[in-house]
Amino acid sequence: MLIEEPRRCSWCTGDALYQRYHDEEWGVPIFDSIALFERLVLESMQAGLAWITVLKKREHMKAQFYGFDPFKLARCSEPHVQAWLQDSGLIRHRGKLEALVRNAQLTIAEEDFSDLLWQFAPEVSLRNRRVAQPASQTAESQAMARLLKNRGFGFVGPTTCYAFMQSVGMVNDHAEDCWRYEVCSNHHDRADIDR
Q: Any catalytic annotation for residue 51?
């Protein structure tokens, strides 16, 4: 007897790595500051690239970037960037790597990085509003990008910020017929999630 595959968002079909990320992580609310920093790094690294490229390099990035620990990354300097630029397992883009270190420094300077980012989440009643074609940016992601850029963060444009918001559950852009839509719709705020 064949077991029917669950319905998923169309963007993640055909690749096991995509499906695992979609099924286990994408759209699940995250409130931990270090976990949020990791997702921001991943979305920043993706700028101009296919998301699958980032997913394939994620484990190596995690190993080389100290588990995405912003406290450790904040102490990195030019020799680290030079070494990373030679590492084919990473996304070798000087601007993104320099922004990684600068963003880490700025992240740890925040009193509560999670609160800083979550202030841009739409009201709960709007988070699960599904449209036929999700936007690539919204007023909220534009506001988030503006604030982060004003504070010195790099590679955080409004499209990157919206992809980040989708990833960390600030919005639920799973297709309504996707098996993850209802699961992610039921998480509304910090009280719903084990941090």
A: yes
